[in-house]
User: Fold this.
Amino acid sequence: MKERKIAPYVYIFPTLLLVIVFVYIPIIQNFYFSFFKMSSYSTVKTFVGLKNYIRIFADDIFYTALINNTLYAIISLIFQVGIGLCLAMLLESSFVAPKLRTFFRSIYFIPSVISITVVALIFQFVYTPDIGILNGILKVIGLSKYTHAWLGDTKTAMYSIIAMSQWQYVGYIMMLFIVAIQKIPEDVYEAADIDGATGIQKAIFITIPQVKEMTLVTSVITVIGAFKVFTEVYVMTTGGPGTSTQVLGTYLYRSAFLNDEMGYASAIGVIIFFITSILSFIQIKISKSGKD
Amino acid sequence: MKRKGLMTIVLAACVAITSVFSGCSSKTADTSTKDNGKITIKFLHRWPMEPNKSFLDKVVADYEKANPNIKIDMQSVANDSYKEKIKVILGTADAPDVFFSWSGEFMYRFVRENKIYDLTSALNQDGWKDTLMESQLKPFTLNDKTYGIPYSVDGKVFFYNTKIFKDNGLEVPTTFDEFLKVCATLKSKGITPIAFGNQSPWACIHYIGTLNQKVVAEDVRAKDYAAATGEFTDPGYVEALKKYQQLIPYFNANSNAIKHDQARISFVNGKCAMMYCETQEVGEVEKLQASDFQWSMFKFPDVTDGKGDQTKLTGAPEGFVISANTKHPKEAIAFLKYLTGKEVGLEEVKDTGILNGMKDIYNTSNADSKVIEAAKIINTSKDIVQWLDTDLNAQVANEYLSDTQLLTGGNITPEAMMQKIQKVAKQVKSGTN
Amino acid sequence: MNKKKYFLASKVLINIVLFILILIVLYPLYWTIINSLKTNNELFASPFSIPHKLNFSNYISAWNQGLSQYFLNSVYVSVVAIGITVFLSALCAYGLTQFDIKGKNVIFMIVLGGLMLSPEVALVSLYKILQTLHLYNTRWAMIIPYIAFKLPFCVFLMRSYFISFPKDMEEAATIDGCNSFQVFYKIIVPISLPIFASTAIMDALFVWNEFTYALVFVEDKTIQTIPVGLMAFRDSLNTDWAVLLAGITIATLPMVILFLCMQKYFVKGLTSGAVKG
Assistant:
C-alpha cells in the first residue's frame, strides 16, 4: 500500500523534471537575458534595463519580420484551412469515386512527411531563375514575360517562401478535415436529402458547421506555426534579399549569432513567447471545451 | 499485433537504456583528449568543398604520419555558415584547438574577449616570425601582439577573358571611367560585361569596400570603420555607392538570386567577359575551365576623382588561430606552424593555387602563370585593405550586407542606405561609450 | 435529366482540378528524381528532359559524402527521443490518472503549461544551459530538448486515453500482488498500444524534421542529423546539383515509403491530437 503512495510521484518525477529544467527554466532565463547586452562568446554581460525593448519597437527589421509572420499566418489560413477544407469536402463527396479517394488523399499528404529542409532545397530549384521549374513552366505555357528571380526580388521572395509552405501543408490540414468529416453521422445528411438539399447546400449548412471545432483547431495550429517559422526562411534565403524575408525566428537567430547581440535576441524571444503562448492558450481552451 | 507492439516497446526501452550509457561516455569526453597516449587536436576550417578539402585532408594525413602521437580531428563548415558557427562554438567550452579566422576586426573581437591564444612569444622563437611576410602578419596583430598566422594571401582583382577583349579591340582599363566605357562597348556587342552573383551579399560588399577605400579619404575612413568613432557622414560614402550603381546595368540579370560560385561558371564558359574575384579563386577557375579558355587579371581601376589611396589592394589574409583555452598549446602551435609553413605552402600553391604567408613561396616550378600573376599584383601593392564585412563591427557590417542587396535590386537609394548605416553606427557608438 | 448532366459536368471538372493538383504536388518530386539521375552538365543543359542514361553514380557519391551518416544519426536520434518520450509520458499519465495523489491537477497544469512555450524562444538560454551541462555538441543536445518539449503534449494525449480506464481493472491485478509498475506494463501497456503508436507517429513528425536545435546545438558533422546535414551537404557541393538532388532523394524516400505503408496509423495519430507543432 505504501508503494502505491510513493510510486506515482516516481512516475511523474522524470517528466516534471525535464519540463521544468529544459522548458520553464530556459524561458525564464530568456526573460532575464533580455535585460542585458552580451554576445555568444563574451565572458561578461552588461545590464541595460529596458533598452533592448525600446530598440525593438524602433527597429524597422523587427516590424518587417512581424509583418512577414502575419502575412504568413493570413495566407496559410486561406490556403491550408480554406482550401484544405474544400479539398476534404470534395474528396468526401459523391463527386469523387470512392476508389480514387485514397489515391488523392495519400498523394496530397506526401509533402507533409518530407523534411522541411528537403522541401526548401527542392523549392530553391523550383524558383531558381535559369533552369528552375517555375520559370520553365511559365515559358512553356507562353507566359515567359512573368518569369522572375523569385527569391532574388524583394517583392516576390516572401511570397515564394509562403507558397512553398502551402504546398507542404495543405494536404496535412486536408487530412485532418477528412477525418472530422468522416465523423459526421450519416443521418444528418439523410435528413437533408429528404428535405431536397443540393450538394452545395449540404456543404454550407451541414458540413461546415459540423467541423467547426476542427476548423478552429487547424486555424490556431496554422497561425502558431506561422509565427514559429525558422527553417524555411533560413534554408532558402537567410532573411534576404536585404531583410525582406526576415521573420521573428530568423531575426532572433541573426541577432544572437551574427550581430553578437544575445540580449537583444532574448528580447525578441520574449515577444515571440507572448504571441505564441496566447495562441497556444486559445488552442488548449478550444480542444478542452470540445472534449467535454 | 499485441505481441509485436509490446516487443517494439521493449526494444525502444532497451535502446533508450543502452544509449544512456553510451551517451554518458560521450558526455564526459573532453575537447582534446589523451587516448592511448595520443593527443587529439581539434581542427576547424572553412573549406568543405574542392579543391581545398582534399588538399587539407592530405596535409592532415601527412602530419599524422610524421607525428604518430598526434591525432587531428578535422571539421569544416562552409563560408557563409562559418561566420555564425564560430561564434556559437566560441561561446562554449568546446572550441577547436586550431581554427580558421579572417584577419582584422573579425579576429579582433574574439581577441578582446580573450578567446585567442597569443602567439607573439612563439613567433619570436627560432626565427619563425622572419619567415613570414610582415604585411600579412599585420592584419593578425592587435596592440603589438600577434594572434594568427596567414594560410592564404588574397587580393581582389578583375578576372577577364582576354579573347573577348582582343576580339573587340579592348584594352585593360586603368581608370573607372575607362572601365565603364569598356563595359558599354561589350554590352552593345551583346556580351554580358560582368558576371555577378550576390545571393550571398559579400560579393557586393567587396565592390563597395573597394569603392569606399578609393573614394573616401584614408583618415576619414579609418575613423569611421572603428566602432567607437564611426559616423559615416562623409559624402564620399554616398559617392561610392553611386559609382557602384553605375556598374549595375553591366551585371548579368538576377544577380541577387545567383550565388558567386554559380556566376563564376558563366565567366568560365565565356558568357560573361569579366568578374571581380579573389586571387584565391585562380585554382577554382583552372579546375573548371576548358583548355582553350584564355584569361588574365587586372587591378580595380583608379577612381580619378577619389580622395582615397588608389594604390591599395582590397584583400586580406585568411589564416588560423589557436584557442586561448586549448589544453595542448605546444602541440597546437607545432601543427599550426606546419600548416602555414614552407613545406605545405609549396604544395598549396601547386594544388590549390593559393599562396600562403611565407616569403618566397612561389616559383615557376610550383606555380603556374596565373598564380604568379596574382602574386605579383599582391606583392606590388603598397598595402592591403580589409574586406568591408570583416573589418567592421558586426552590426554595421550586417546593415551594409543586407542593404547592398536592396541597392543592387534598385530598392533603395544611396542616400537612404547611408542614412540607415549612420543610424546603426550611432547606436554602436553609443553602446561602446 | 438536367440535374444529372450538371452533376456529371461538375464531376468531370472537379476531377480534372484534382488531377492538376496531383501534378502540382508530384512534379517537383518527379523533377528531383529524374535530375538526380543525370550528370551535372546534362542537368544544366536540359533540366526538363528525361535522362539519357540512368546515372546512379550520383547516389553513390551522395551516400559516401556523408549522407549515410546524417541518415543514421537521424534514425538514432529519432528512435531514442521517441522511445523515451513515449515511455516517460505514459508513465507520467499513469501516475496522474490511476492514483489518488494530492495536487495532481496542479502538476498536470504545470506539465501542460510547457505546451505554450515555443522552442525558438528558449534557443539562447538552452544554448547556455547545454554548455554548462557539457552536453553541447553531443547527440543528447538534441535528444533531451526534443523530449522535454514534446512531453507536455504526449502526456496530454496519454492522459486523455488513460483517464477512461475503469478502476476495477487494476484493482484485480493489485489483489494478485502486483506492484504498480507491474500493473503498468502488464495491463495498461498492452491495451494502450494504439495511443502509443499514434503518439510515436506525431512525435516522429516533429523529431525527424527538427532543424533549429540541430543547427545551433550540434557542430560535429559525424553526429549531425538530416535537416542540418543536408544544408552542409548543399554547401560542400557548391554547384554539383545532380549529387545534391540524389542526396535529397535518399533523405526523403524512407519517410514517404513508411507513410505509404502505415497510412492508417498516421491518420489515427493526427486525429487523436490534431496538433502540428
Summary: Chain C has a mean pLDDT of 83. Chain C has one domain: 57-272. The longest helix of chain C spans residues 57-97.
